[in-house]
Predict the structure.
Amino acid sequence: MGSELYAYALLAFPFLSATAIAFLFRRNGLVASGISVAAAALILATALHIIFRLENFEFNVHWIELGSFSVSFGFLINDLAKLMLFVVAFVGFLVHVFSLGYMKDDPNKARFFGGLSIFMFSMLGLVMASSLVTLFVFWELVGFSSYMLIGFYLGKPSAAAASKKAFIVNRVGDFGFLIGIIMVFSMFGTFNLTSLSEIFSGDASLLQTASVTAIGLFLFCGTVGKSGQLPLHVWLPDAMEGPTPVSALIHAATMVAAGVFLLCRTGFLMTVDALTVIVWVGVLTALVAGLTAIAQRDIKKILAYSTVSQLGYMVAAFGLGSLVALSGSGSHEHAIVTGGVAAAMFHLTTHAFFKALLFLGSGSIIHACHHEQDIFKMGGLAKKMPITFWTFTLALLALIGTPFITAGFYSKDAILALAYQQDKVAFSALVFGAVLTAFYMTRLWKIAFLGSPKSEGADHAHENGLVMTIPLILLSIGSILGGFVWFYPEALRPIILIGEHLAHGENHTTVALFGGAAWAIGLAVAWILYGAGAKEDRLERTSKPLHTLFAQKFYFDHVYDWYVAKIQQRIALTLHFIEQIVLSGLIVRGMAGIAGLVGIGLRSLHVGNIHTYVYWFIGGLVLFWALAVGIF
Amino acid sequence: MNDFASLVQFSIAVPIVAAFLTLFVKSWGRPAVQIVSVTGFALPLIFALFLWGLYDPSTPGGYAFVSNLDTGLEMIGVSLHLGLNGVSLPLFVMASVVGLAAGLFAAQSKAENLSRYLFCLLIMQGGLMGVFASIDIFFFYFFHELALIPTFIMVGIWGGRDRNYAAMKMTIYLTLGAMLSLVGLIAIYVKSGAESFDLITLKAHLAEMPLADSVQNYAFGLLLFGFGILVSLWPLHTWAPLGYGAAPSSAAMLHAGVLKKFGLYGLVQVAIPLLPDGMGHWENWIVWLALGNILVVGLIAMAQRDLKQMIGYSSVMHMGYAFLGIAAMSVLGVGGVVLMMVAHGLTVALLFMLSTMVHHRTQTFEMNEMGGLAKKAPVLAAFFVCAMMASIGLPGPGLANFWGEISIFLAVYDFRNWLVYAVVAGIVISAIYGLRAIASVFYGEETDEFIESQKEVSVEDMSWAERVPALILIVVMFFIGFFPKTVTESINDALESEPVYAQVGE
């Protein structure tokens, strides 16, 4: 059996699941959830088969041909795709299982699980796509499934607004992405990733040209949108309006990481200039989002900004590592995978484990606290929800990079090592970002879990059932052990190994010291500043202006809202007005003068019946016949 | 390949015959009228699909299923010369699909004087099938008029708000457009000296002896603005949103979906191949006016509060892509336009139909007065989201639209680099108005007006009578999106054999 059949199967399971739910089981949530979870299980099994049993392969079949334009539908399964497949299939399956418990009583369960299946379909297609156009097709589809699931609670105006915002902001990024794709085709005549990388490896001078820099930056626009980089990050925190399992799967572990994946897929065409921009966008995002996170009260918002910040790390990691590779000072174990790809993917993988876990944990909390999301109204949850508490704590330790024992420490270390080697300013910024991470997570942890309950919901909280806790436990294993190469099966090692190497590189001790210090400082400051189960934010009292800036998210949303309401909408209304008055009113009335008398005649004849039209038609014919004879 | 030429003739004749039959069977009651008319719409679809399956893209000379009927007008070079080539066949099929959907939707509607309404619609359908099957320019034009006149009548009699004003405005504009293009066509006929309206003859004749530049320039100008008015080229588009806003939905479906493509089709198949130098002369005009379509009209679409008018504006905006693809004059650009014409026809027809279904439930087209409809009508919401996503070119439901758009974008980039930024900005603009519409109609809480209207009309989800026509359109949309080669192969071969397009690609 050909390898591609497994890839097709990977797409067929979720597709059939979504179709069956849409057409047959729309009203039967129980069956729908069963089908969707079964599909996720089959996906996991098939993905594992592809990863462990199959060689890397590429498969293409002609899709469309028009003039010089030709696109193949196909799969490109290499080490990179396999690692990403593993993350998507594994986290995807666990989130499906968790949702069985979380969405148990929702009347629209079928729609939820149908949406998850559509998402799995699109995401798997994106990961396997062998050409830029196919990738873009699935890229748009994941955006659509995200839109659908963010707006899952239809009746909530905030959910409607958030889903709309997510889609439109992503389209702004896709504007650039699509232009990048168009330029690639115009320049190289192909969309196929393998062919493109061959073109680039055959001609090193290409990486010196400005047009290739432009291509790289346009493609990067897609990443900026999808992976929530500055200045298009505003949609991601709002996307938390969706059900929490969706936040875990789509808006933390997989889809938002697709932008990073795109960079890794197209890394061969990134020039030094483009990479420099990418690094700084990533670094700035990591910092701004980290600062914003320290002043949020909503547990999901904190985690969302943390996600944005960590995505900034991944993007920066890709840029830094590729710069090191281009300057020739890095040691490369692998022909295709550079340090940048390895570091970014390493962090992407560990982040997928612990961030999915954090979101699922927060979902578990929200579920138990009767939809209370404000951490200052929680407190004392450690005793009431022990499994959630412990798994959440493990993930948290991984996120803040607790030295030596967590996955997050190693993957962050690899990034810091690259930064140390390439750019000391970026390095300092990223270390400071690590301080922030430790700070805001410790704050969350201490306020929500320790002390005494501060709301009725928190008081009545109790642990959830096994369907919800087992996924938590499995993910917590990954959060701790995911930093060690031996944790991964042979087939997944190539990329992780390079990432590991970076973390144990020449400046290992210095970098680890900085990383450890950042961890300790952030943790200590938060520990001192916030009492167990605090009722109010001390930062708010002590440094009001700064806190306001952070709490207001650096006013990005204000600026955009102002632009939309005061500029875009006003232009639209003005143009509409001009059209109504000038075009319809004056010019057209004037032009009616061409047919002048006829027009007036029509009005007097009470238009709308066929006779007037016919008279006019005949009159016109005679007139034009006369013209034709006379003039020609 | 000419064995089944009679099916082409039947596709045109059956709706027209059925139209008159509806008047006769009226006395037998409503079901008889419905059956006759639906048959009149269904048979052409069956014929068209059959011909589609039979068509061989590499047909020599391009035209298959050719027939030539004597009309008694041979002395001025007019004969009923029918046939289909790679460009017209997909449009012919699309016309029959949209026709059946519109017919089914009309047959189950509560229109007064149903038989007369269906009579008009069937005549229109016959004209539409004829437009794309005509090789003779005279009949090409004649069938367009045949389809156009019932449109005016339907708007005037069965239209909604402002129907008299809308009907008048549509009539003035479209008749003016048709007149201008008629003069252009007559000019070609007279000046070429071929003494024939036959497209194939004219093409061969003009390939030998092209018209003088000055003649090409003014003849093309006449055709460009004549067709331009019909296709709603900015700033001659203002009839469209108003007219579609007032038109009864089946008429809007057929006009916006199919008949409007007459102008583009005329440019692609007639004007440019016959007057290639004229095209060069007017190129810049097309570029700038088409930008007006995309950017100006796109922004205006954002300011709309009336759902149907918004769809009308969005349709006008998409015509900008089509004009730019044509301006690129390559197989890629023009092929993309043909593909987009097919996809857009299906999509916009679906949107008009669904917006009428929304109206049945909310009693209004004002989006401010709607909200929260998804809870009451989830299936309608799903269909509408699907249609809107297709319209804004989202791969998936709109994969066919996406193929058309990306082909056009690529061609435009090769044509003039800078243009692509403005053109691709359209995907952001359309996302904004499209998603706003979805959000304000279906999401959120029910507005006071909506709650009020529910006291008079109870809101139910889509019935099967409503679902079937919508599903027909959606299935074809998905099919063309996933298997675009079924359409592009024939388009490609037809355009490659057209020297004026083939040379640009190289």
User: Anything to note?
Assistant: The CA atoms of residues 1 and 54 of chain A lie 11 Å apart.
